[in-house]
Amino acid sequence: MRQFSYTIRRAADVSACISRFRAVAPKAYSSLLITVFTTSVNQAQILHLTGRLGDAFPDAAIAGCMTTDAIRHGGINVNAAVVSFAVFETSKVKIVTFDNPETLAEDGKKFCARANRIKNLAAVGIFGTLHALDIQPFLDHLAALDDRVVIFGGGANTVKNVPACVFTKDEIMEEGLLAVTYAGPDLHVHASLNFGWKPLGREFTITKMTGAHVVEEIDHQPAAKIYEQYLDIRPGKTFARDTLAFPLFVRRGSSYIARHTIGCGPHGSLLFIADLYEGETIRLAYGDPREMIEDAKAGYADMAEFRPEALSILSCYAHRMFLHGDVKFELEPARGIAPSQGFYSYGEIFRFAGRVGIHNMMLLTVGFREGKKPLTPLPVRGEMPTRLKDSLLLVERLVRFVSATTAELETANEELNRLARTDRLTQISNRGETEAILKEAVARAEKNDPPISVLMLDIDNFKKINDIYGHDVGDHVLTETSKILRAYVRHGDTVGRWGGEEFLLILPNANETQAAQVADRIRKAVAALQILPDSRTFTASFGVARIASGESFAAFYQRVDGALYEAKHSGKNCVCVANAPQHKK
Fold first, then answer.
1. Is a pLDDT exceeding 60 seen at residue 401?
2. Could you list the active site residues?
3. Please, are residues 560 and 442 in contact by the beta-carbon 8 Å criterion?
4. Which of 216, 224, 222, 164 is nearest to 37 (CA)?
5. In this structure, are residues 261 and 200 in contact, taking their beta carbons and an 8 Å threshold?
């Protein structure tokens, strides 16, 4: 395939654009896709442009949308339209429009069913009026498409006080979306996602929502208070602009995704274009100019490895506003990879964690190629200057300070969490942590997982050790015993202090016979220790039990504790294995 892009600033440029493409266009092709990204909000002018293109190339599929700024060849086109011609040699491109808000869920279901029947489907592009239309019911169905199908897109955008629109050759929609399907036996599509925003401060919880787009309360306080309390940003006309550099991070699974507020509602609520849910964990985030640019460069390196013949770049408008003139460093590396076109979007669409949804604050690059990848390497050009011209030195230093203090805070929190789970004297799991792991092990046994056995041990005559030698020696006995326990277990086993001179070991994938063997080795190692002041030795007694399927925690604890009791009253310094539980008939 090949891609040709042109900038349209005045009426005369349209004829020149058509003539220039005709001069280089291949004589034969299977599909021609014309995309138009324009900063104009004059609907009559837009339809005139698409009409001219449609008359000149009647077999072409035409799709486009309004934008604040268009992207062409790794650069920004201000107050202009970018017209791109993507010429496919063996692939087919088709456009479907949807403009009924009431039927979007059903439309998405039907579209997905049709798309699943398209042979060699490689990608689906979605362009919609996300500010005016909730297209999530449509997107929800796209998750059923094969994981290999790349799903990407964005929302029409404008800073002018008019509705942002999407359009085709002869239709313009203030509430609607376009779905573009790309299919071909030799068509390869690859997407690269880049971020550059970092978490800030502690986690919060969404405690009250209205629908999926209005957050009423965070930690049971008016949602907007999070911005007022931590950043001194208060509700008002400039709220969306002031919070641009500070989106919310939402924890989805093990990762965070970003959500940018679009304004304040009544009683301190926050408004969003992308979905959020009650009970979700969130954090404030902040923009790091250098991180954005470095992350983008890493994404282009990944794309260069793919060796695309054409690029489509969709960047969040927040990147444009936050980086200002330095945004050029985020786009420049694309120039050496392949011809590129794109726009600044009002929300980015892609598949994440098995779900297709709307995201914010992203730079999304999509590469297209027909045929095999060339073997020759493709270097990524573009260097970041020592100091960004349009990013204030104060901001850069603030970013450095926030990054460092946030890292320190996270490290401190991790250490506090570790200390909360650790016995201070022996540095093994404390009673609370050990009991939680044991309860989880009992629950797993109910599901007939592999065997789990438990050792409970007690140091014999420990009170006499304290009475004769003092508590410092007693503490030394406990710490040395815990070292032996750690030395005789595997990775994944749990060693915990149950209380006083009692310890508990949890051994996954071990039956009672194997556990008893471990206990006996530990017993001998403890008996061989000579750490008392007069070189005397001490011993320990052991109870062993295997967790039975369907057994309650209380019943199991009674069995293993009973086995330890038996060992203590059988001469000590021995191992007793609990009998299997008696099942009631």
1. no
2. 501
3. no
4. 164
5. no
SS3 content of the chain, % helix, strand, coil (to 5): 35, 30, 35
Longest dimension (CA), the chain: 103
Report the residue count for the chain: 585
- Residue where the block lists tokens 């230093």: 397
Q: CB of 317 within 8 A of CB of 287?
A: no
| Residue 255, pLDDT above cutoff 80 | no
Structure tokens at 129: 């009026």
For residue range 321-359, list pLDDT tens digits in order: 888 888 888 999 999 899 999 999 999 999 987 899 999
Q: What is the pLDDT of residue 406?
A: 72
Q: How far is it, in rounded angstroms, from Cα 526 to Cα 505?
A: 15
**Token duo for residue 322:** 């936050």
Residue 98 and residue 178: Cα distance in Å, rounded? 7
Q: Which two tokens mark 262? A: 């679009």
Is it the case that residue 420 has pLDDT exceeding 70? yes
- Nearest alpha-carbon partner for 345 in 327, 363, 324: 363
What is the pairing mode between strands 166-167 and 61-66?
A: antiparallel
End-to-end CA distance of the chain: 74
How high is the pLDDT of residue 134? 92
Residue 424, phi then psi, degrees to nearest 5: -65, -40
Q: What are phi and psi of 103, to 5 degrees?
A: -115, 15
Q: How confident is the model at residue 394 (pLDDT cuts 50, 70, 90)?
A: very low
